Structure formats: C-alpha cells, structure tokens
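Incident review: delayed structure delivery

Summary: a single-chain prediction request sat in the queue longer than the usual turnaround. Root cause was a stuck worker, restarted by the on-call engineer. No data loss occurred. The affected request and its eventual output are reproduced below so the record is complete for anyone auditing the incident later.

Affected input:
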Amino acid sequence: MNLAYGVKDKPKFGQLIVFAFQQLLAILAATIVVPVIVGHDMAQSAALFGAGIGTIVYQLFTKFRSPVFLGSSFAFLGSMAAAFAGGVSASLGYAGLILGAIFAGLVYVVIAIIVKIAGVNWINKLMPAAVIGPTVAIIGLSLAGNAVGDSLSGATKLDDGTFLMTKNGWAFFICAIVTLFVVMICSVYGKKTAKLIPFIIGIAAGYAVATIFTLTGVAQVIDFSKFKDMTLFAIPQFTLLTGIDGLSEISGSYVATIAVAYVPVAFVVFAEHIADHKNLSSIIGSELLEDPGLHRTLLGDGVGSMVGALFGGCPNTTYGESIGCVAITGNASVVTILTTAIIAILASFFNPFIVLLGSIPSCVMGGVCITLYGFIAVSGLKMIQNVDLGENRNLFVVAVVLIAGIGGMKLGIGTQSTFVTLTSVACALILGIITNLVLSKNDAKAKAPAAVEETAEPAAKTDAE
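Output delivered after worker restart:
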C-alpha cells in the first residue's frame, strides 16, 4: 500500500505528537482493561507504563524497523488468574505475575535461538499464505463481537444475542455510529491531515455527542464523576514493588503451577506473533521475518514482555489495533511508535490524562474498533489474493482455518480446575498447519505419476506424426 510516512520517516514535531496520541488511543482500551479483568488491585496506569517500556525494548531489539506497539496480552488472562488462585496472598500473586512473564519470555528467547540457527524458511513452508492469510483474518473477525458489543453497550442483550434497543441503547449506538462514520469520512475524503488522524477526529466527535446526551439527561453515556477528587500526579502501583515481598513465599509447587499456566500459552502466542508480523510486513512492504529477522522480533517481544511485567504485571504482545492504525492512516513511522511509548510512560504518572482517557465511553471506542478490527480481517484476506483457490489443497486449508476460527473453536486442555486455553485463533492456525502438511504430502505423491504422463504424451504424439 502507499504509505504517507515510511518506517524510517520522521514527521514534524507537532504532527508527531498528534500521530502518537492517535496510536495511544488505538491501543489504550485493550491495554488498560486487562488489569481490570484480572483484578486484585492491579493498576491500569502501571499496565500503561509497562506497555510503553516494553515497546521501547521491542524497538531496540528490532533495530527500530518494526512499527508496532506492544500492549497487555489477553491470551495470558487465564495464566494471570492462576497466579492468584488458591487464596494466595497479594504479594505472592504479584510475584507470580513476574515469574510467569519470565517463563513466557524465555519461551520466546529459546525459539529465537532456534530460528537464528535454522533460519525462517521452515516457517514459510509450515505457514504459507494459505495458512497465514485466513489466520490474520480470524484475528480481526474474532474481535468483531467485542466491537459490536461495545457499540451497543447501552442496549439490553437478550439470551439469543439480540440487542433490545431502548432510549439508552439508541444513545450509545448513535455515539458509536457517529464515531465510525467520522473516522471513515476523514480517512476517505479528508485532506492530508484528516487522513492521518481519523481516529482522533472520530473519537472527538463521538465524545462530543456522548457529552451532549449526558448533560441533557438523554442517557448517562459518560461518567464525569471520575474527574472529582483526582490528584494531579501519582506513582503507579508497580508489580515489582508489591511482588518483591512475595518472593520469600514462593514454593516449588507454586513455581510449577505458574510454569504450567504460562509456558503453553507462550507457544500459542508465538504463532500469533508470526501472523501479526506477516500482516504488518504486507502493509509496510518489507518482510520483517527476514529484516530485522524473526529472531529479533521474538527477542523484542519476549524481553519486552518480561520488562513490561516487572512494572505492569501483564505480558505484552504486538497489538492488532496498532497494526490496524498503521494500515488505515498509512503512517508506518517507527518514531511515531517510540513517541507513543514515551507518552504512555509519562501519562501513567499524570492522573488527569489517565482519567480523561478512561472516560472515553466504550461505545465510542466500539465505533473505532469496527474499523480497526475490520482492517485486520481484510488484510488477512488480501494475503490470499494470489493463492490458487482452484486447487483443492489450498481451498481446504483456507476453509478449515476460517470455519474453525469463525466457529469459535476454543479448547481448554487439562482438568476443570487447572487448564490451558487454546484460543479460536490458535486452534484455527494449528488445524491449518496440520491440514497443509497432510495435503502437501499427498500432493507431492500425486505429482510424480503426472510428471511421467506429461513426459510420455508428447513422445507419443511425435511418433504418430
């Protein structure tokens, strides 16, 4: 695609700050919601700090060639919950978060070493476009429910999944639709500046409508009470500060529990790591698995997760929202990503900024995410444009990935009390890889006789002539 700013380009300072703020808005909701889901007083500001510092580590390892932001990973939600399971103390649970992130990061380091020695050709054979393309599409499609749910968060959801539209529901939905269409109109019809910051303009428009609804009493879309009694500055509750007291409580059985909870998930996220970087490569027109290399992106992701978890408790991962933002705006500048990371770090200490961002209604973010997740899905579909779907092997591979992913094949492996979750994306990818390997072998066997027949047929024709 045509990029407004390439990977090495440096926007002017004023533009840079605006572009970075837009990236922050794109990744914000998912990054700070993970600690909320896990609970146990995990701080959203600490997660934001951890995401920022983890992104900087990632950029250092990738030689500033991969324009993507790292944020809190949803894949490790079950693993993080395991750190607090069994009534363990808060300090031990926080120590478990750090220990788990180290285990997950070490998985990436080991794989990175293997990739450095063996190269990446085996990955391209294992996961060709027929596997990676639909998998990337599934990453976007699997998030579609979140975007729709947020957009209709004011409505009443019935047992059959229908959203019953009340006055409150319509107000929330209108905010989402206004945000969505302003983003699309700015991106398609806007001049250069509007094309580069459609999310900021869209969120501002949605927020303005939400404010009107709230102040006029139509619906309570924004909770302005969050702004009361807030301090100006505050030091985030870093995981390391709380977890250091729990180090003395760690036992061998607890270490084993954390390892079992984190290590298998790390292998699953590794597959998603490849899909994300394949997608980003197609957007920026440069193969990241070769330059800077998969071993570097893995090291950056793994070590970035370790460092980020020391502060925010959450293992990090490359964010589809960030990739979608790059795709829609055409801004692939790594300097923008670095500036976003710095703003995230500074903002984690500034309460008014955190409260302002946290006050953005979920319906407004839902309108934005319809475009972000949609672009991820479309990017994956574009990867299979050159795949010959007239060949049954490719057709079956793509079909299996799409149906497993869209169908929600989510598996829990283990006992009812302790199990590892394979997400629908992971299941779809694994099935796609297996299908591709099985059918490739059969295809190779089938080609041998065909080659003999093709050789014999011209000879027969020559004799007849």
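Verification: The radius of gyration is 24 Å.
Action items: add queue-age alerting; document worker restart procedure.
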